[in-house]
Each structure stands twice: as structure tokens, then as C-alpha cells.
Amino acid sequence: MSFVPQAIFFTQGVGHHRNRLQSFELALRRAGIETCNLVTVSSIFPPGCRILSREEGIRRLRPGQLTFVVMARESTQEPNRLVAAAIGLARPRRRDQYGYISEHHAFGQTRKKAADFAEDLAATMLASTLGIELNPDAAWDERKQVYKVGARQFESRSICQSARGHKDGLWTTVIACAVFLPE
User: Fold this and answer.
1) Is residue 1 included in any domain, yes or no?
2) Tens-level pLDDT at each residue, the chain (183 residues)
């Protein structure tokens, strides 16, 4: 049996609770995917896959459904400690080619920094398969301009959830997910 996802959506969430697992459950609730049996997978964006809005994607889910996700997840019990979870996507403009999804989990990074890192990581992986020369020492904004020019253009984006550890030492869990769906 072969399963190649035809659609994908992106979501994120944060949860706080005295138990680590329950803080994860609350993050899943915020993300709208708590009723699914999640199966984590690696990071290929399938050719021809459509990107749906979060709302449309969640509407298509059924309780108990086996749901394939690329997930970034981080937790802390340390008050005020900054945690972030980000997903990056890079996909060729030609829809018959595959792209890359990256996950990034971090402590001490702002939402923007973690999101940019995840996007850069996915874009770097795709660029290398397309033969685009990169300067790894250049800033993300500079390298992003290289990705957008020439015959091998592609699109990139990211989603991120960050939070500071709960002031009373409750577990704080952040997640960001790319959720695959059949058509």
C-alpha cells in the first residue's frame, strides 16, 4: 500500500501544565490535532501536494485517524526560559518536483529567529538538490534572495511557536507541525 499525501496544513500550539505529558496534550489542543493518532515522519514535501489553510485541514481530520506529521517540539519547566518549535518549507515552483520540510527545536531563540532558521534549513536542503550554490556564511536574508532568482526558483515559508516557561514552574510545551492529509 502506497500513501503519498495530496494535501498539507501547518499548525502550532503551546500548553502549560504541572505534568509534562499534559502540557504536550494542551499544545496539541491549541494546534487542533489532539484527536489524531500522530505518526512522525521525515521531511519530504510530495510533488503536487496542495497547501491548505489550518482551518480547512483541521476540518478534514477525524477522531482516531492515523495522521502523519513532521513535528517540532520543545518543553521546559524552568520559569521564563524561552522555548521555540518551528517548521520550515521549501518547495519548487514546478509542482511536479518534491520539496523539503525541516523541523527546528530551540532554547533561547525568539520566534523570528527560530522561524528563519527552520525556513533557511529547508531552503538549503532544496537548493543543494537543485544545484544552487550557497554561501553558508551569508545571512538568511541575503541567501533568500539567491533562492528567488534564476530558472530554479522556489518558495519558502515557516511557522513557529515560542513561549517563555511558565512563571510558576509548570511545564511549558511548544509544538509546530506540518500535517499530511490524503485528498
Assistant:
1) no
2) 678 999 999 999 999 999 999 999 999 999 999 999 999 999 999 999 999 999 999 999 999 999 999 999 999 999 999 999 999 999 998 889 999 999 999 999 999 999 999 999 999 899 888 887 766 677 666 666 665 555 557 889 999 999 999 999 999 999 999 999 987
Beta-bridge partner residues of 82: 164
> ∠ CA(143), CA(147), CA(151), 5° rounding?
150
8 Å CB contact between 10 and 33: no
Whether residue 140 lies inside any domain: the answer is yes
Q: Which one-letter amino acid corresponds to residue 49?
A: C
Domain span at residue 126 reads: 7-181
For the chain, what is the domain count?
A: 1
Q: How many CA atoms lie within 13 A of 168 on its CB side?
A: 5
